[in-house]
Inverse folding.
């Protein structure tokens, strides 16, 4: 058995702050330099991703606007409404991912909520497209219709799971926090 002084010689005590917390020793200069280097690389990657996402969203928006204009001129807007809605929801997904990149760049944290929102938009997008194509599914036969119904069921469960997850992860509003006190 070791005496307290022998134990302290091998395992020096962790300094305690006046408020009861422990102090951390500062990392070595090499470790600090590497962390800063990785942080800079991460920032460059986030900037590049943000730029690519923004360009893609703008290109889709422009192409969608041109297609919408052509549909209005040719009188085929209602025929192509599913494709327009699909494109708009894709743009919305890209914008949500862009927001996630922005938050990650600014705060250097990765949060779950934006990804859940993107998943919810993607599931909603597929549900809307699938619903609009039900008439085609009936013409393709019983197997295609059954598969579409199965996919609709899975998407419905996924949507409910994403909504519940978002509800559980949401931050309480300030008004609610004050009301609880």
């Amino acid at each position: 058995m070791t005496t307290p002084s022998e134990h302290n010689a091998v395992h020096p005590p962790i300094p305690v702050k006046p408020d009861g917390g422990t102090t951390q020793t500062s990392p070595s200069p090499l470790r600090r330099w590497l962390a800063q280097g990785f942080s800079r690389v991460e920032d460059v990657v986030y900037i590049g991703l943000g730029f690519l996402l923004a360009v893609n969203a703008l290109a889709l928006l422009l192409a969608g606007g041109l297609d919408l204009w052509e549909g209005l001129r040719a009188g085929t807007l209602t025929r192509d409404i599913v494709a327009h809605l699909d494109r708009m929801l894709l743009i919305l997904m890209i914008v949500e991912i862009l927001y996630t990149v922005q938050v990650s760049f600014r705060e250097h944290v990765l949060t779950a909520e934006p990804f859940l929102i993107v998943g919810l938009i993607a599931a909603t997008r597929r549900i809307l497209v699938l619903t609009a194509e039900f008439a085609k599914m009936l013409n393709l036969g019983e197997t295609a219709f059954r598969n579409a119904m199965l996919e609709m069921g899975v998407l419905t469960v996924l949507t409910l799971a994403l909504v519940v997850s978002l509800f559980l992860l949401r931050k309480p509003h300030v008004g609610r926090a004050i009301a609880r006190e």
Notes: The two ends are 51 Å apart (CA to CA). Confidence is low (pLDDT under 50) at residues 174-181. The chain has seven helices and no strands.
